[in-house]
Specification:
The structure is a homodimer. By secondary structure, chain A is an alpha+beta fold. The first copy, chain A, has five helices and nine strands, in the order ββββαβαββαααββ. The first copy, chain A, folds into two domains: about 160 residues, Nucleoside Triphosphate Pyrophosphohydrolase; about 60 residues, Winged helix-like DNA-binding domain superfamily/Winged helix DNA-binding domain (Arc Repressor Mutant, subunit A, Orthogonal Bundle). In chain A, the strands form two sheets. In chain A, strands 1, 2, 3, 4, 5, 6 and 7 form a seven-stranded mixed beta sheet that branches. In chain A, strands 8-9 form a two-stranded antiparallel sheet. The longest helix of chain A is centred in the middle third of the chain and has 18 residues. The first copy, chain A, is elongated and about 65 Å long. The termini of chain A are far apart.
């Protein structure tokens, strides 16, 4: 072995990429940090994430931190990739903030990233004065400069989700409300897969999905003709891995 | 945030699960550690892996460490999962060994695991007095107690490979020699997928694979009738992700 020093204060964090769907657009859950640096006040956005505790497993840390920062509990988080570019913590603001919140000298940080697909009507709460959890349009991500390498992590999560859903299309239902219209399902499908489906063919194909249940209900409070509602029974559909 | 201390000397390592196929069995590349503890001498096995350097990306670290411990260069390593159970470094021998080799106080270690499928005839070299790299039968893994949680990592890599090959069957060719017999391909397929294929049906199906090339050659130095050789042209076959 070369004469290398390993006491460079490395740390391990987890970050959560949580996707939702509002009926029209894909959304990502981000934390707004409001930081008083003494001389200056600034605000930016980041993924929900933080340093893991000493005696904590990675999955446990991801769940704990997501709950602390957003109030969300029992979210099915799947680990999808770890990020360890030495440059990911090159912005002094990110490191200062972390050192301030952890009261620890922080060198390098490797983060283990998790993904979750959730229904957007779940209640988000935030109990900190300095952070706020909110849904943002995924389309706007390109114009935001998130903390650390969180833009890269979010994009990798998006491509992971796309690949996953091309293999397990039923995972789409995780993003829909319990009762949804055919238009909502098609919009979501088209955004995720990156296609424009024919309305009739799509409906014909989808109605053959085991577990898809047409309801004797229509959507209320809509401007035009009230569309029929559907639900999806996981137990009857193919296995959903998310 | 709770009053938590983060200065618990966490470290980040990478570990590589390298699979090969000897014509009959799946093999895994392991490092034999021979350790002189002063009072006692002992020997055990582990995955090729180590702590990452301060200024090194994860992929770079995995390649460097695999080369240092096995001599293998330009191996296509894919990150598949990170392991961070706090108990994974609970064996004092593992920690002592790491502290000895790194000359650093080691607390918790999270490891980022990589997988590679390689041709078993690649040259393995080892230049250390205290370690030896060798192929072992994957079947024997259940009877070996590897260092840290390396048994668990190897099993997770195996199930990752199985799932991957069920989606991208062409990845199997990474494990075969450049020229292979139909029997070798079928044995490998059956081991990985966990089935017993019908000889004729298998051959019929495989011969339709784009990129599979029947050669005007037979395998030499075999006891019975010399079997025909085949090769596989990646560029003509489906995309291989590994």
């Amino acid at each position: 072995m070369k004469d290398v020093k390993f006491n460079y204060n490395p740390h391990i964090s987890v970050d959560c990429v949580v996707f939702g769907f509002d009926g029209e657009k894909l959304k990502i859950l981000l934390i707004e940090r409001n930081i008083d640096e003494g001389k200056e006040f600034y605000s930016d956005k980041k993924l929900p994430g933080s340093i893991i505790y000493e005696e904590e497993g990675l999955d446990t840390a991801a769940s704990r931190i997501l709950t602390e920062l957003t109030g969300l509990k029992n979210v099915f988080l799947t680990q999808f990739h770890s990020f360890g570019d030495p440059q990911r913590s090159s912005n002094p603001r990110d490191v200062n903030w972390l050192e301030m919140t952890t009261q620890t000298k922080i060198g390098r940080i490797v983060t283990v990233a998790y993904i979750a697909l959730i229904k957007i009507d779940r209640k988000i709460v935030f109990d900190s004065e300095s952070t706020t959890a909110k849904w943002y349009d995924l389309d706007d991500l390109a114009n935001m400069k998130l903390a650390f390498d969180h833009n890269e992590i979010a994009l990798k999560a998006l491509s992971f989700m796309r690949r996953f859903i091309s293999l397990v299309p039923n995972a789409l239902f995780e993003l829909l409300p319990k009762k949804f219209t055919m238009t909502e399902l098609r919009s979501l499908h088209d955004i995720v897969v990156g296609v424009t489906s024919d309305v009739r063919n799509f409906q014909k194909k989808v109605l053959q999905t085991p577990g898809l249940i047409p309801l004797d209900e229509v959507k209320k409070n809509v401007p035009h003709r009230a569309p029929k509602l559907y639900s999806f029974d996981k137990r009857k559909g193919s296995k959903i891995f998310f």
